[in-house]
Design a protein that fits this description.
alpha/beta, TIM Barrel, 8-stranded parallel β-sheet, 41% helix, 16% strand
Amino acid sequence: MHVRRKLVAGNWKMNGSRAALAELAPIAAAAREAAGVDVALCPPFTLITLAIARAGGISIGAQDCHSAASGAHTGNVSAAMLVEAGAKLVIVGHSERRQDQCESDDFVRDKAEAALAAGLQTILCVGEVEEERVAGTHCQKVLYQLDRSLPELRADAELVIAYEPIWAIGTGRTATPADAIEMHAVIREQLAARFGDAGQRIRILYGGSVNAANAAGLFACDNVDGALVGGASLTAEAFVPIIEAAAKS
């Protein structure tokens, strides 16, 4: 049986300012007290270097990277640039980028491969929309997306999967523990089929309106190895209870 450390990663999305970095001190204090839990925050690109100076044991990462090392890609940032800025991880394939920026599974896979090659812990997101869940095709959709988005796994790489029920992001709705157990189980099965024993070591996060009220129930589920947290990661008041719930799970 593989024992996987819990990972609680915050995604600030297009939020945050220098003033918001004051939230890092109490978050870092909670992270230091949370034995067996890894804590990460992904602020906007503009705050990465400043956040690292205040991280206090929190891993600081980015919300996206390009698949190319350099070139004519206005407005984009490469994995190597993130490493140079001090980032330790990156999120790729978030549903908002897949939808808003029309990112394909192939492009997400290329980003993940670039990020892993650069030495970044890489959180790869997959998930279904409400219509697919209602139709009962949610597992097929996520497995298809995962299959096409998965990078080749390097021996020294740290890949993390985040399951995002897209219908729950920012809506206040959350998948039930039964929903999470079902989806994380099929993701785990596919990871094991693809990567063998290494697939059992990959952490699978739940990401969909995680908050202090539902975190403990989600963390108690099989194959839920942590959370990718959106709005609740913006303040210590909301984020710290999630870290504490992970430490108790």
